[in-house]
Design goal:
The protein has 213 residues and is of the alpha+beta class. It contains 7 helices and 7 strands. It has a domain at 66-205: FAS1 domain, CATH 2.30.180.
């Protein structure tokens, strides 16, 4: 009888041990599954984050390449302007997101300036002077050719607006050609207009504009 009772107690203890061990194993498995799930989720989140960052970086690079400064660097007829923008530390401004209208002098436009004047503008000590000349060609906001034509018509043929430099330019029509007059009274003809960029619009002109002295 005592032996039988001992067997029963042993069996009960063994059953309890197996049950407890089984519970502990179950908890370990649940914990391992939780850890593995968290690891997979973290890896997936990190991968998604890296993919998003890579996509954003690619989009920014494309925007810079298609920016006003980027297009100036890629256009062989604007190589002088591109060099001047870099010399005046304005490339960054016209590469970043924004809304600008730029009247971009062609290489031939710069060649109209006396050689002495060109050399003077490109001297490192005259960087501020060069920046003033270049910013006189930049207007806040995006002015498409349709808007410009409407503004000229609405202003009785002579539309005046301010550059980022704070000085004025005047737009008018000569037949079907856009003409931009600077502060000194000199006129530049638009030879290519409405060139879209990621941060504005470009009009290529045949003369360097100068503010009134």
């Amino acid at each position: 009888m005592t032996f039988k009772k001992s067997n029963i107690l042993f069996a009960a203890a063994l059953t309890a041990f197996v049950f407890v061990s089984s519970c502990e194993d179950g908890k370990k498995k649940e914990e391992q599954l939780r850890i593995e799930t968290e690891r997979v989720e973290m890896e997936a989140a990190e991968k998604a984050k890296m993919e998003t960052q890579a996509k954003e970086a690619e989009m920014k690079e494309q925007a810079r390449a298609n920016s006003i400064a980027g297009q100036a660097m890629m256009n062989k007829d604007l190589s002088t302007l591109a060099g001047a923008l870099q010399a005046a530390d304005l490339s960054a401004m016209l590469s970043e997101p924004g809304n600008y209208t730029v009247f971009a002098p062609s290489n031939q436009a710069f060649e109209k300036l006396p050689q002495k004047k060109r050399d003077e503008l490109m001297l490192p000590e005259n960087k501020e002077m060069l920046a003033e000349v270049l910013t006189y060609h930049v207007v806040p906001g995006v002015i498409t050719s349709d808007k410009l034509a409407a503004a000229i018509k609405g202003a009785n043929g002579s539309y005046t607006f301010k550059t980022v430099k704070g000085e004025e330019l005047t737009a008018m029509m000569n037949g079907d050609q856009y003409v931009i007059k600077d502060g000194s009274g000199k006129k530049a003809q638009v030879i290519l207009g409405n060139v879209e960029a990621s941060n504005g619009i470009i009009y290529i002109i045949d003369t360097v504009l100068m503010s009134k002295k």
